[in-house]
Amino acid sequence: MASRNGSNSGSSGWLPWLGLALILLIADQFTKVLVLGAYRLGDSTYVTSFFNLVRAHNTGAAFSFLAGASGWQRWFFTAIGVAATVFIIWMLRSHAGQKLFSFALACILGGAVGNVVDRLVHGYVVDFLQFHYGGWYFPAFNVADAAITVGAVCLILDELLRVRRTK
User: Fold this and answer.
1) Where are the domains of the chain?
2) What's the chain's average pLDDT?
3) Residue 158 annotated among the catalytic residues of the structure
């Protein structure tokens, strides 16, 4: 893999990216507190013809992967989240000058930490955003999941743009 240009132009160049991750973490946790206070597990509010607010608990990973396991998955996914956090902070410190790349990492960081907090505090991740159409329901998700998804899309875009620049 080719080296990335645009390294950090100062020792604190990565701190704004940590600030973005913190804002996403706060937004995620705040919305989850609202849902936990207003809904019981399984409650749902019809908002539009394609969107509901629900309260769901996910003991697994994306799309409830391993949700039916015996409980070990809580610690496994927590460990993955902690390892990802350490790696992402290291990457942010090394590449803070790369705006799209760092934006992507900050989104993933904020989302990963948000879901790790849920696993540690509740033993599950609180999900509450649910899209649907004609009897088909997309699995419920949360702000952290949305941030991780936006970050992943931006990472792909960053790599495509990097490859294009090298041609």
Assistant:
1) 15-166
2) 86
3) no
Could you tell me which residues come within 8 angstroms of residue 115 by beta carbon, excluding any fewer than 6 positions away?
A: 77, 81, 125, 142, 144, 145, 148
Q: Identify the CA nearest to 61 among candidates 117, 145, 136.
A: 145
Identify the active-site residue in 28, 43, 118, 145. Answer: 145
- What percentage of the chain carries pLDDT values higher than 70? 84
- How many other C-beta atoms lie within 10 A of the C-beta of residue 26? 13
Active site residue 118: no
- The pTM assigned to this predicted structure is 0.84
From the list 28, 43, 118, 127, the catalytic residue is 127
Q: Is the dihedral of CA 155, 156, 159, 161 positive or negative?
A: negative
Amino acid letter for position 24:
L
Q: Are 108 and 88 in contact (CB under 8 A)?
A: yes
**Model pLDDT for residues 42-91, shown as the tens digit of each residue:** 999 999 999 999 999 987 665 555 555 555 666 777 888 889 899 999 99
